[in-house]
Design brief:
alpha/beta; Rossmann fold; 261 residues
Length: 261
């Protein structure tokens, strides 16, 4: 058990507030009140392409942070890395330096046959198939995003889809898995039969930590593949996957502005 200099166990809920953060390397005053959260640190510059007055704030471990302006609003982008443990750390530490709202923008695999690579997927809740949230809350505790953020993400995504006419937008329950290569055909079929829309690795931790800390969160992902039909953008259409990422980023940025997050 870790002890403080006074001989008492450390309360991690009370440490690190208002100082430079150990894992993400960011200090108060270096971020905005809203953060977009891609998983991949190399996707943070894609968000910066939409911004002006861009500042490269920090890059420590899997967590890269940049800030800039979008339509008069300051925006932060911080990568979470892969999975719920590093996502929970990013959200906890960003909250300690002033971020109040989070929108995950990532890749996700579809679990329903009608969804195509390049479509946008808005999460209405997450099935908690991870270990991180079990350390925070009881098994029955729901992992749900902020309602207004979710509704606005879908509305903005539909507007972009109507303008471009090249992809569809779906919303539904997602699932957050811990083990990418442990997703067997049996597991995929079970998720499909439950009507789960898509699978990724971070949303459940994002939602649970946000709820516990009085924060707001949502998620919009680009569909990279379909685990039921076998269709995939990873095979040979990387440009189309990037287009999906950019569409999800635009929808998230528009949501941040319209809700003044």
């Amino acid at each position: 058990m870790t002890e403080s200099k006074h001989g008492n166990p450390v309360d991690k809920n009370t440490i690190g507030v208002g100082v430079r953060q150990f894992h993400i390397g960011v200090a108060p005053g270096e971020v905005s009140t809203v953060a977009l959260l891609p998983g991949d640190p190399f996707r943070v510059p894609l968000i910066a392409e939409f911004l002006t007055d861009v500042s490269d704030v920090a890059h420590n471990r899997e967590h890269r942070t940049m800030t800039g302006m979008y339509k008069g609003k300051k925006i932060t982008a911080t990568s979470t890395g892969m999975g719920c443990p590093s996502t929970a750390i990013a959200v906890e530490e960003l909250a300690r330096v002033g971020v109040r709202s989070f929108i995950r923008v990532g890749s996700s695999a579809a679990l329903q046959r009608h969804v195509n690579p390049g479509d946008l997927l808005v999460s209405e809740a997450s099935l908690r198939n991870d270990g991180t949230t079990a350390a925070y809350v009881l098994l029955g505790y729901p992992a749900v995003p902020d309602l207004r953020i979710t509704i606005e993400l879908e509305r903005c995504a539909q507007e972009i889809a109507a303008k471009e006419g090249k992809f569809s937008v779906y919303s539904g329950i997602s699932v957050s898995d811990d083990a990418f290569y442990a997703e067997t055909p049996v597991w995929i079929s079970q998720l499909n039969s439950l009507g789960i829309l898509n699978v990724e690795m971070e949303a459940s931790a994002l939602y649970v930590v946000a709820r516990l800390r009085g924060l707001r969160a949502g998620m919009i992902c680009s569909c990279s593949s379909n685990l039921v039909s076998g269709a995939s953008l990873y095979d040979d259409v990387h440009a189309a996957l990037k287009t999906g990422w950019m569409n999800s980023i635009e929808a998230a940025l528009e949501t941040a502005v319209k809700l003044d997050l």
